[in-house]
Amino acid sequence: MAFNVVDGWTVPGFTHDRELGGGASGRVMLATDDLTSTQVAIKYLGGGLGADEAFLARFRASARRLSQLEDPNVVDLYDFVETPDGAAIVMQYAEGVSMRRVLAAQGPTGPLAALSMLGGTLLGLAAAHEHNIVHGAMRPANILVDGDGNARLTDFATSPSGTEAQSGPPYAAPELWDGVPATVGTDLYAATAIFYECLTGRPPYAGRNMARLHREAPIPADEVPGPLRNLIHQGLAKDPAQRPRSVADYLAALEDAAVSAYGPSWEAQGRGRLTELAAQAALHPEPPKAKPSRSSGRNPIVTGKQAGGGGSRTRWVLAAVAVLVIAGAGASAMTLLRGEENPPPDPAPAQSSTPQPTLPAGGVDPRPLVAQIDQAVAQAPGAVFNYRQSGCCGFPASAKGTFGLVEGGQPSYSLTLAGTGSARKPVRAVIVQDQLYMRVGKQWRSAALGGSGYPATADQVRQGSSVINLTSLLRSATKLTKSPPTESGTVYEGEAPATKLAQIPGIGPMYAQMSQATGAQQIAFAIKLDTGHRPTKFWVRAGPEDGRKQMINGSYSKWGRKPLIQAPRAA
Question: In this predicted model, which residue has the larger pLDDT, 262 or 346?
Fold first, then answer.
């Protein structure tokens, strides 16, 4: 079959490779950019859409916003092309298997994979809603699962206003059947209906009069596992006002339910299972296209106002942060820590001549080294930092920003903070004394450090990234060696007993958790100091290099006196 044209034309500058699929809104082709050889997906809009000026006007506005949206859970839109021959959407070619195909081939996914799918789907919706874009008619065919188990959304705003219910009847909120424009609330309803199908193998409602069922039938939450029923009740509420006000609120409820029912590693387990299901589904042929619904309710579909502005724009406090990750966590300390640019040296402080009765194995005396670090940092009590926790057992987190040291007190931070995983993304935050302040939308909210969720993550970041952590590792070392000094600094590598570190105020809880999770009795570490004895990089590992482990990586730069970090005014 020839693929050089679709409906008599081709987007100029591209050569078609093969057809990827199609539906009511048009055919999708895999194509290659003639100039760059980059592969893209091109959706040629069906003749009805291409001739609908009201739809085209609305989609032009959405396309402009979509082209500015960069999110790992949304397929990138590159261009919207309109010619006398037709209209087409040029977008990122995202390899993956649709949830429609996964469900057709595998049936129910199980709760962990379903939660992972829902988390990724909601993240994509959150990013779109932030740009005033609603999906409008989401269904399993619009969710792609890639090779890493990430759920990615496509086909935003491709249903004419007022027809969204007919585009995906099993997932259409009650108000869509009355011709009400799509909103944040209708997107949440559709996402929940897909989540329900992942749990049970079928949509929540099926029958001859879908409109009446969505409006009047009881929510079938008893069909899903008990810990997840409240999510179903929230997302499938008949009254839009009873659904979560925003994706952020629903994501928070999702994470609470998932952690309570399946533990902190739920997301990694769910992502792994979703990856397996997608790989298995890829071996099966595409399911046949669904027949158009014959009965969609007695109420006529009325063309509504332009969609996109009906929901909360509150930014989810969990949104993706680009973190500087020290490459090769399993590599040796010397490989990890050499090669840093040489920062301006400070005058070297006088070394302590007090001998230590017993030196660690390796022969390096940590006491004068700690004194040098303390003195150097006191002269420049602030820095830019990057930090990452990784490994098993619900440990992952990341942060970047600046901190300032307070004499006799805890450091204060201005940072971007994130826990990793599909249901956790970054939040703008400030840490002053023992309070965490998080930016949510245009307001700041405060919480005491510790506990669970982001206050717990913030506490771990403060413990792990602190200079006190590094000097405590050196003081506690039972093994400590020194690399030959270079122009960029010196690397110290060692080991310290986990039990001893667990007893140190301020950092003890972190090491107790690392030891308990991995079974490690010794904590391995490496610290790089510049020529002025200020830390520039470090890593810490609990557990074997190849095996069940937890890692901490961090870096510091631009040491100096930073502006005082003050607590924002919380709502």
Answer: 262
